[in-house]
Structures are given as C-alpha cells and as structure tokens.
Amino acid sequence: MKVKTILVSQPKPESEKSPYFDLAEKHKLNIDFRPFIHVEGIDGQEFRLSRINFQDHSAVIFTSRNAVDHFFRLAEELRYTVPDSLKYFCVSEATAFYLQKYVVYRKRKIFHGKQTFSDLMDLIKKHNKEKFLLPCSDLLKEEIPDILDKAKIDYSKAISYKTVCSDLSDLRDIKYDMLVFFSPSGIVSLYKNFPDFEQGDTKIAAFGPTTNKACADHKLIVNVPAPTTSSPSMTMSIENYIKKAGKK
Fold this sequence. Notes:
11 strands; Rossmann fold; 248 residues; alpha/beta; single chain; 2 domains; 9 helices
C-alpha cells in the first residue's frame, strides 16, 4: 500500500524550511501534525511538598527550554529572587541562548555543552563544589541522574513539570496511512485515547530505541525505524520507505 497521508505526533514546524514540507511537496503527501503529548507545569503549592528550596543551590542544570521556562515560572510563584551569582549549566548552546528570555546573558555565569548531557558533565565536574538544582519533568531520562550520581555530584532533582497525554478524540474517525512517533509517551497517548486501536494496514514510523521498544510492547509492527545508518533522520527514513513502496 502506497503512503499518501501521514500524521506526525509533534507540533507543526515553525520554519517553512522544514524537511517535512519538502517531503510532502516532493512526493505529493498530505502530512498533518498533532502533538500526542504536552507539558503541564507543577504549581508552587505542589512543588513545596518536595521540600526542595531553590535558595539552597548555587547552580542550576538545564536540559531543555521547558526546564528553563518552568524554573523561572516556579521561582516567581515561590517568590524566589534569582541571584546574579547563580551559575547556569545548559545542555546545548541553543538552550543557553534561550536564557536571554529571563536574564541578562552577558552578566551571568553561563556554561553549555555541545548537545549531549555527557558533554555537559565535563563542565559540571570542574565545578563539583557547587550545589546543583536539576529542574526536570516527571519523565526525566534515567541516564541523567545515573551520570550525576556516578560522578558524586551534589544535586537536587526538582520535578517542575509533567508530560501528559493530549486529547485526540477528534481524530477518532480520521484514518492515516502512516503514524509517526518520537517517544514512548506518544504510544501511551495513542492507546489512552484509542484503547481499541488496531494497526491493520497503518504503517508505523518510530524514532529511537525506546520508542521502538514501546511499539513492540504494544505488538505494533514498526515499518519505518529511525535513525538508521543510511537514514539518520525521520524524514529520510520515511522517504526511503516511500521510494521502496513505490517500486512494488
């Protein structure tokens, strides 16, 4: 079966230069975007139950823009005045630059890795006398606290926001040739919204080993795994599948 309609379980790209738009135009596809999950902040009253005090920390670790947003949101709710002396350790340069939304960048002590948390750890280890705060979601990757624990870093895991399933009920009667997933949470949302979902002829594209495992756990057949050695991105993997399907 040829693929003509695709639902990507993420927000629509803001840039017109997205490879998804190129893919749609090149192969005459109808690609829709719909986030299957979204983030909700934990309010100050609930956060207080963790008994974590922002003022007890001299540095903060940011693994995403969401972490930045919810740290400063909670700081305001908790009436915590962020000191100029606070040190910021960001997983990437893009996350570090995002801090400009909240602080005067050139007047703060900001450090950033290249892209992965392992890169950032080299900088954190050089400042291992600091007391770190780690604002995060309820679905923080286990490898992050594992790496910090192994390095004997003094830190507090501060769950500041949570990932929840979006309401997809309006999609009940809409059929797509392919569904594209990027996280196990997306699979959880699929079955929470549609407990009786059956794959049938629907093709499944899944990015990353944990997403592929979640598909297997639900007995879903992954037709388009990504990334692969020949297709490092999801769009490349989808295009290769479409080309092969077109030759049959």
